[in-house]
């Protein structure tokens, strides 16, 4: 038995040994097929046993999805699934690994870096470096074209323990992930009241006052500005960029000199909070913005009550009509304009792991490598074509040998994606658009807005990348952040409403230090330097 299994109780060890010896039909990993120099399709069909998570909207049996049916036909490998949804998946995944009833692999594994490293330490999952080098040409091609991902996949000990999901939509500053919280302003109200699009923070304040006083929603229903505090795409932090470094969802930015900074310790952050308090004192903010959840936020938006609000895509809240438009970044009191970049990117480090129970490593690696074929990756991510039972997200253009996005005729893309796509490890590079597939219409639209409105005002050359910290670093970061970030978030909301940021600022900085801010900065800086050297 593997070292991992040795750490279990004697009862579990005994049970696992019986299973491993092949005398039990409920064995959770596959027998050794003794296959080598494998090419697909296999002459005789075999099976592998995977654990996975899928959407409640998807078929209970993943093999009912056309994508998996085609993969089985192409490879001669049938996948025997244990499939779970929601919180049940995490519980069953952890139980399988702790009890020794491990599958061959876990698709859509969802492990944190800390979990990955601990599973590797216990030899419950295996290093993948040699398998990638020897048996995975599709993934190797991806890493040759975009070598930055290999660094992000690699743990501090030099090993790769999981297969990633990669989705590029725009590069660098023009990445679709550069800004989450787009500010959407009611241009219908601007026209109705004879107002110009604001270009400064003072002009924005005047516009919001006009919304308040004229009540264009009627019956006192007008909300000049709404948001969900400390909630990523719905947060009002976009406005902080007019005062300095700005703010983003993880409070972390990197200067053009490569210095890691906490946005919430910047002097400009204090000035931004003071401006937010001015808006609050003028009754220009949605008072529910400090506690409302997504359904409430959406409901009020659909009622047409917002003058200005923040979210990724206005279609989710106020629809795709012409009544709302993207507001330009604003100049602050000293003329400063800055669009703060998020640290988001289309990369998930742990979409699939291979367990130490797996006795068919070459077979498993070559099957997983099929998922990194460009046309296959596109379908894994969004859905497929030619399905007679489900609505299709693509049509296949035979002449161009290319997948083209279809008009979904009102179907929500995310719902169709959850019913028909498979997620998992994949790679979609920017070079695929126009050759392997088209861009989704909603993504192309947002990328256009990003390039036209946001990119010209981005001051930062760098973002904080997906640093793979070591276990000791992760332990310290999680311990510090457990107190540091809630304190930052709490003071942010308090100051916007009580206006005491100026008088409390110095004590606040002292408290940040007491909570481990300086050590947090050092760990983050070391990780950044290591990842970018």
Q: Tell me the major beta sheet.
A: 6 strands, mixed
Ends distance: 40 Å
* Percent range of helical residues: 25-40%
Number of helical stretches of at least 4 residues: 19
Overall 3D form: globular
> SS-based structural class?
alpha/beta
Strand order within the widest beta sheet: 2-1-3-11-4-14
Q: Which whole number gives the mean pLDDT?
A: 93
| Rg for CA atoms | 26 Å
- Residue runs with pLDDT of under 50 for 5 or more positions: 1-25
Q: Which oligomerization state do the chains in this entry correspond to?
A: single chain
What is the percentage of strand-forming residues?
5-15%
Number of strands: 14
Keywords: Cell membrane, Lipoprotein, Membrane, Palmitate, Signal
Protein name: Extracellular solute-binding protein
InterPro entries: Bact_solute-bd_prot1, SBP
Pfam family, one: SBP_bac_1
Task: Walk me through what this model shows.
By secondary structure, this protein is α/β, with parallel strands linked by helices. The longest helix has 28 residues, at 471-498. 40% of the residues lie in helices and 12% in strands. The protein is globular. The strands form four sheets. The protein has a six-stranded mixed sheet. The model is unreliable at 1-25 (pLDDT under 50). It is built from 19 helices and 14 strands. Strand 12 and strand 13 form a beta hairpin.
